[in-house]
Amino acid sequence: MMPPKLLRAKPVVKRLEGWKSDIRGTTRFQELPRAAQEYVRFIEKECGVPVTVHVAIGQDIIHEHPDFDGAATGAASYADFLVYTQSVCGLDGGVMLNIGTAVMGPEVYLKALTMARNVAFQDGRAIQRFTTGVFDLVPLDVDQLRREAPKTDPTYYFRPYKTILVRTVADGGESYYVQGDHRTTVPTLYHLTLEG
Hints:
Blueprint: H1 4-7, H2 34-47, H3 70-88, E1 95-99, H4 104-122, E2 131-136, H5 159-166, E3 174-179, H6 182-195
Helix pairs in contact: 3-4, 4-5
């Protein structure tokens, strides 16, 4: 059920300038048209986190197009992975939410966290005091959230469970699972966060 306060909410519309230029082959943020850069910066400012894109080449129909540039897409995804990893370096004492991404998100997060932890270890620090949350539709046994499921259990292969709820907080931290429709769970989280 949607909180009453959110039912009364009115959308705030912000119009941003568009762009008509071809951005195929663009691998660096600075190469984007000014309006595209401003659009990304606006989203980052509103959300308070960097915008990154992690493409798995071959998953989308656009990858079959003759003009698709796998090298440019790979280079841009790698650059974004490094931006994301830099953000994860500051996770200690923070929160990471996985909302509805069952494979790519958890795996990118696991690799970024591993790199960030390795760098922190070399600097005599640790990244282990943080909270993770997974929002998804899959029913999970909440009593099992602190240990990895056996390989005979299909839950073992559900990446958000195995990676985010168990593995990445094994050395410290807490994890939570919220099952439900994102149209309800995400606005409810937002509402509860504002209430503090």
